[in-house]
Amino acid sequence: MIIVMSDSHGESKIVQEIKTKYQDKASAIIHCGDSELDATDSIWEGITVVRGNCDFDDGFPETAVLNADNEAIFVTHGHLFGVNFGLQRLTDAAREHNCEIALFGHLHTPIATIEEGILCLNPGSVLQPRGRYNIKMYAIIEPTQDTFRISYLDREHQLIPDLQFELPRSNK
């Protein structure tokens, strides 16, 4: 199980709550940027985090690559890869790093799609949702041999019924 959150914009309480809930259950907890917290904050122990366009602490990396649940994962905030205009640059970067999953924030809206064999996922925002779903949320990825099971949850850790997906793998 891989936990993905993003765009907490200064609210450390929800980051800590998600960390506490999943730290002994998940193979990885990931924050896709715009935390607006210090890179040296102890909250990041056990969390992979990247720098967003609202993170002014240059102690955060722009991107991260990690392995969790036998998956190679590319993480970025998204603004440096033009995600407002499509996912091509993001998928190219993931492919360059031999990753099957590309995680990104920035848009504050849930996105789960397979692009050129790569799972591209935006977990929405845990603080400032935008778009069709006005729900503060995060995501869980459960990889299987044939699919990626994606669940979006609200801040009360309840499943969001319209945001449950099983996407077929095309490259495993």
Automatic annotation (TrEMBL):
Instruction: Identify the EC number(s).
Output: 3.1.4.-
Which residue numbers delimit the Calcineurin-like phosphoesterase domain?
2-143
Its required cofactor(s), as named, are: a divalent metal cation
InterPro entries linked to this entry:
Calcineurin-like_PHP_lpxH, Metallo-depent_PP-like, MPP_YfcE, Phosphodiesterase_MJ0936/Vps29
MF terms from GO for this chain are: hydrolase activity; metal ion binding
**Native species:** Pseudolactococcus laudensis
Q: Which family does it belong to?
A: Belongs to the metallophosphoesterase superfamily. YfcE family.
| Protein name as catalogued | Phosphoesterase
PANTHER family named among the record's database cross-references? VACUOLAR SORTING PROTEIN VPS29
Instruction: Supply the alphabetized keyword list.
Output: Metal-binding
